[in-house]
Amino acid sequence: MAVQPMPVVNIQPGIFRSPADIKTEVWSSSICDCCDDMKICCFGFWCPCCLRCQTSTDFGECFCLPLLDISTSWLPAASLALRSAMRERYRIQGSMCDDCLLVTCCTPCAWCQMARELKLRQRTLLLVNVPSPVQINMHPPQAFSNPSMHLQPMPAGLYPSAPQ
Prior knowledge:
Layout lengths: L37 H9 L1 H12 L17 H13 L6 H10 L1 H22 L13 H4 L19
Helix pairs in contact: 1-2, 1-5, 2-5, 3-4, 4-5
Pfam families: PLAC8 (PF04749)
Protein name: Plac8 onzin related protein 6
Family: Belongs to the cornifelin family.
């Protein structure tokens, strides 16, 4: 009796991506849209360290994180880390290479873009999470609502009086 060989099926492992991993958002403003928010633009131009520290704090990171960029020579690592974290949190399209190029070649513009994005996202979150008004109805306790009920006075001494 002849044995027939079984067919061989090769299944290559694939990358599974859940819907939460897919980046569908884009930056709300372009890297050069400084005129969209002149307050952030002027803040970034006249006091860039203050803008960076404020943006870092608003994002939930340490206030002094951007000051670490002063100690690096050619790559602002803290700026790169914060920009990448912002992209991941808000599921914004892009890559680490894009982030690296932007924070290295145009650091002030990258920080202004991050500040504008954060301002927009925080404002949107505040509008979405507005709590509904709470209505509290105060009813008097049952003991006080019935005027015919009389309370017995407590004895004045430390111990109750003996029964007679």
